[in-house]
Specification:
The chain is 56% helix and 13% strand. It is an alpha+beta fold and 185 residues long. It has one domain. Strands 1-2-3-4 form a four-stranded antiparallel β-sheet.
């Protein structure tokens, strides 16, 4: 077996053990893309449907920036390209972190899975359309929270789980049995 094959096998085995977490990512991605498709088909830009009076509307907006519209590219191809490259870099970092984290750290794996699914969903929008489709509009009175989508929700919950998990005591590594019998002293 070559050295290159030898280094790939642990990666494949590790990802095979983490496949249930990758299903979480896939579920987030599918739900995100499906809800965005529904909004794009049934609501014209800036149209709104009241879901819960005084609390929730579905409002179709196109976000050319990142979270909460920060750093909006506003149709500028260079800005969109920069945000796409930054998104790909962040996605690579999260993917790497997912790969190296211990399989025993379930909360962190769920968190990273949610972030991966959400990041891919928003990145697909940015690449395909130059903007991310947002539609969840929570409000109270005249105060409206920033409009967001399923991917943003998955990312936010993932980050929240990472923060929550950082307050937990790390699990002790299981003791390995010694190959030599222990003698009495």
């Amino acid at each position: 077996m070559s050295e290159a094959e030898d280094t790939r096998l642990p990666l494949i085995a590790d990802l095979a053990r983490k496949w249930p977490y990758l299903l979480i990512s896939l579920a987030c991605l599918v739900l995100d893309q499906w809800t965005k498709w529904l909004v794009e088909v049934h609501l014209s830009d800036h149209a709104s449907i009241e879901i819960i009076p005084g609390l929730l509307n579905f409002t179709h907006v196109r976000n050319t920036g990142v979270a909460f519209g920060m750093f909006a590219a506003r149709g500028n191809a260079t800005g969109t390209l920069i945000l796409t490259v930054l998104g790909l870099g962040a996605l690579a970092f999260v993917g790497y972190y997912f790969r190296v984290v211990s399989q025993r750290d379930r909360i962190l794996l769920v968190a990273l899975s949610l972030i991966l699914g959400g990041a891919v969903g928003n990145l697909l929008d940015r690449i395909a359309r130059g903007a991310v489709t947002d539609f969840v509009d929570f409000y109270y009175g005249t105060y409206h929270w920033h409009t967001f989508n399923v991917a943003d929700t998955a990312i936010s919950i993932g980050i929240g789980l990472m923060i929550l998990g950082s307050f937990r005591q790390p699990r002790a590594e299981p003791a390995t049995a010694s190959a030599e019998p222990q003698g009495e002293a």
